[in-house]
Amino acid sequence: MDSAFDDFLTLEVNHLDVNVLTGIYSEETHLPQPLRISIRARLKVADHYAPDTPLSRSKNYMDLKHAATAALPEGQHFTLIEAVADHIIDTIFLQDDKVLHVDVKIIKLALSERGEEIGITLGRGRK
């Protein structure tokens, strides 16, 4: 049973600015839009992390960055930013079976007029 005091490990990559083809309006569908993407991935936690614990007991942070940048298919139009988040989550789950849950927050920078953060957060657990 999960409790508020269970051990956990969360890797984070925050505020990646990525240009992605997304949108539903005609003025949005032909040019990439700037998105700010943040990712939190909860992993199976080791019993203890000693100074010589190998990276294989955790996960490389750069894998999260890769899922939100290079792993997004070039030229692919995503109607909804929810689909962008789902693609990132699927990529991270495929990378490593130690990942138990992923949250992806996406802010549509083009909608911000005064620094507002307008967007979504999608969280999925491994099925």
From TrEMBL:
Gene3D superfamilies: 3.30.1130.10. One of its GO terms (molecular function) is dihydroneopterin aldolase activity. Residues 11-124 form the Dihydroneopterin aldolase/epimerase domain. Pfam families: FolB. One of its GO terms (biological process) is folic acid-containing compound metabolic process. It comes from the Bacteria. This is Dihydroneopterin aldolase. It comes from Sphingobium quisquiliarum P25.
